[in-house]
Amino acid sequence: MYWEKEIECMARKDLEALQLERLQTVLSRVGTRVPFYRSKFAEVNFDHEKFNSLDDIRRLPFTTKQDLRDSYPYGLFAVPLREVVRVHSSSGTTGQATVVGYTKNDITNWSNLVARILTFAGLSADDVIQIAFGYGLFTGGFGLHYGAERLGASVIPISAGNTKRQIQIMQDFKTTALVCTPSYALNIADVLFDQGVNPAGLSLKFGLFGAEPWSEEMRREINEKLGIQATDNYGLSEVMGPGVAGECQECNGLHINEDHFLLEILDPETMEPVEPGEVGELVITTLTKEAFPMIRYRTRDLTRLIPEPCPCGRVFNRMHRILGRTDDMLIIKGVNVFPTQIESVLFNIDGTEPHYRIVVERENHQDRATIMVEVKESLFSDQMRKQSELINTIRKQLNSELGIGVAVKLVEEKTLERFEGKGQRVIDKRKI
Ligand code: DLL
User: Fold this and answer.
1) What is the domain count for the chain?
2) Longest dimension (CA), the chain
3) Is 299's C-beta closer than 6 angstroms to any atom of ligand 1?
4) For residue 111, how far is its CA from the centre of ligand 1 (angstroms)?
């Protein structure tokens, strides 16, 4: 267990005082050491002497993914490279890659924060943790690995892929906790079933899933199939990697490690704070990072705060599971649609498998969305009537959830590609 009661349960006003003190330090640090921030701060006549409340942060400019790209590779580092002990990078599939760095202290903090997240979820030194996130430049594998070691658990650094081997190891090494993306967990559950392995015969108790959006319905599906308690955890490489926020065993929102991160939830149009509890874009400022501090980083992730205190007793605010990203929000026929909304509907319908794709096309200036969903093989040998009934049910429910008409196509089990890392469920063929 990695439990810092004096911090995790401190009075809110003390936490805010700690945040302010740390914020002042980080601002003076980047203002003197990073030319990018120095010139940005000068543009708004920022004087850190006059910075005396957390709300003053609203006077500072935002940092975006593009700023990171423009500073590739080391332009935003706040320490010389000789103090950097680790570098991670995003894959760059959607543009120029971005690079982030860590000092020794950063790695220590990162490990501690991930150990905290694992503790939130109920894990302890008694657990055997199988890390099926990719190891490499992606922060998932190493981030969870160091945290699990810090916790004192037995760590199996198997990395992603080779699903049959994952299952073999899980059986032989008596894994108690699986750590990966939710889509890979589902993939593992399917292969487990195909191999006739009864999950009740495994030692698995916990699943810690993150790195991509998923729904409450998907959690239920994974819990049932693997016989575990699945929790959600959130992070992003730009501000650290995993370890930013995670669910406790209440499974009702993710506690934010607020002693290390300052969060704002802003209306993505006006960039003004939303009312407490309303949905907006998450903007994060790091409070303790040395090598790669981030000031007001626009995550593009949408969520809302859960204002009620959590029964677990932690002071850290909770955020609702990520609802989607401003940039993977689809606008179909002018209506905003999030893939997780479609997922929630599909997972509640009997006869469908939990694998789907959303294909969007444009023909004669008209959008057309087709939802491809896997169904049990037996349905295809059944009468056509059953298929069309199912299509109608899905279509009706999607129409009422989304407010637009979509086409539905049933495909046979195992025809849609499976994921080992982050899932890619939307195929947008529109050239807009
Ligand atoms: O995905 C870090 C991570 C690794 C988090 C392992 C949790 C576990 P990036 O590759 O930089 O970092 O991607 C960050 O992934 O902005 C979100 O859009 C999405 N994301 C991460 N965690 C969640 C989650 C890692 N729990 C981007 N729910 C973020 C929804 C998530 N989306």
Assistant:
1) 2
2) 75
3) yes
4) 17
Q: For the chain, give percent helix, strand, coil, nearest 5.
A: 35, 25, 40
Q: Does 328 contact ligand 1 (Cβ within 6 A)? A: no
Q: Residue 86 Cα, ligand 1 centroid: separation in angstroms?
A: 19
Question: Which residue among 296, 326, 356 closes a domain?
Answer: 326
Residue 344: domain span: 330-431
Q: Is the CB of 237 under 6 A from ligand 1?
A: yes
Residue nearest to atom 15 of ligand 1 (CA): 211
Q: Whose CA is nearest to atom 29 of ligand 1?
A: 236
Question: Do 69 and 193 fall into the same domain?
Answer: yes
Q: How many CA atoms lie within 13 A of 44 on its CB side?
A: 16
The pTM is what?
Answer: 0.92
| Lookup result for tokens 């009934």 | 389
- Specify whether 400 is located in the same domain as 352: yes
The answer to whether the CB of 215 is under 6 A from ligand 1 is: no
244 CA to middle of ligand 1, Å?
Answer: 10
Answer yes or no: do 334 and 219 share one domain: no
pLDDT at residue 393 above 60?
yes
315 and 345 inside one domain: no
Q: Are 304 and 341 found together in one domain?
A: no
Q: How confident is the model at residue 94 (pLDDT cuts 50, 70, 90)?
A: low
Pocket test for ligand 1, best of 117, 212, 284 (most atoms within 8 A of CB): 212
- Please count the other Cβ atoms lying within 10 Å of the Cβ belonging to residue 108: 13
- What are 58's two structure tokens? 């609203």
CATH of the domain at 103: 3.40.50.12780
| 325 Rama class: left (phi>0) / alpha (psi -120 to 50) / beta | beta
Residue 138 CA: distances (Å) to CA of 7, 117, 143, 238, 385:
29, 18, 9, 11, 47
**Residue 280 near ligand 1, beta carbon < 6 Å:** no
To which residue do tokens 């120029």 refer? Answer: 96
**Whether residue 409 sits in one domain with residue 286:** no
**Domain end (from 326, 353, 383):** 326
CA–CA separation, 13 and 19 (whole Å): 10
Region 64-78 average pLDDT: 95
Give yes or no: residues 248 and 356 share one domain.
Answer: no
Strands across the sheet with 426-428, in order?
A: 407-412, 366-375, 352-363, 426-428
Using only the alpha carbons of the chain, give its radius of gyration.
Answer: 22
Kindly report the protein residue whose alpha carbon is nearest to atom 9 of ligand 1.
236
Beta pairing partners, 411: 374
Query: Could you report the per-residue pLDDT of 161-217, keeping only the tens digit for each?
Result: 999 999 999 999 999 999 999 999 999 999 999 999 999 999 999 999 999 999 999
Residues 295, 400, single domain; the answer is no
